């Protein structure tokens, strides 16, 4: 019974934190700022990127007072469910497992996933072909889930940040890394450190493997139905007026 009281008290505190956030009139939104071009911190300390601009546009369209802040990836979902954050935007793919713990806005992007490896490595991107190879991924991501399931004979190295796997790749401590194609290209291949590397293997989406999900959306606490409705309304506006298309063209090269 004491455990039940603790659970109920925790639930009441979480609800209270949401009420306080609403009373303050500000929506607190967390993002993992280690994943350019989607979210990162520039030389002046400012949060920048596709998701940051998109969230600000959605909030303006929905007449929400939003504060987008950088947060550690591993603490974002627990922070949302506990009431520390009101929403998350960080290229979050929608999966059945995630739907059990949080609610999602309408889909605003469908990413493509790829491997990156040394040029002329001549890798066989099959479960047996990558046996014994070292694959670097960001922990707790669709990429982590996919390679763990698909390549049981490989060694999977997991990292908290989205940029850390590239250091392992450059240093020769990993043979491959899997991420979003746009992120690999922007963060690595277009830089000096990536000049000896290339995209390898097939282009994959949620249609190819369930681990990659339905697409990318903004996450909110399941109890925040009003906030979700406002976010979806703002998202609909920026889709209709061309702002989303402009962001896709700017960051992803999609017209």
From TrEMBL:
Keywords: Signal. Residues 1-23 form the signal peptide. Pfam families: SBP_bac_3. Gene3D superfamilies: Periplasmic binding protein-like II. The keyword Transcription does not apply. It is found in: Cell envelope. One of its GO terms (cellular component) is cell envelope. Residues 26-255 form the Solute-binding protein family 3/N-terminal domain. SMART domains: PBPb. It comes from the Bacteria. InterPro entries: SBP_3_CS, Solute-binding_3/MltF_N. PANTHER family: ARGININE-BINDING EXTRACELLULAR PROTEIN ARTP, MEMBRANE-BOUND LYTIC MUREIN TRANSGLYCOSYLASE F. Belongs to the bacterial solute-binding protein 3 family. This is Amino acid ABC transporter substrate-binding protein, PAAT family. The lineage of its organism: Bacteria, Pseudomonadati, Pseudomonadota, Alphaproteobacteria, Hyphomicrobiales.
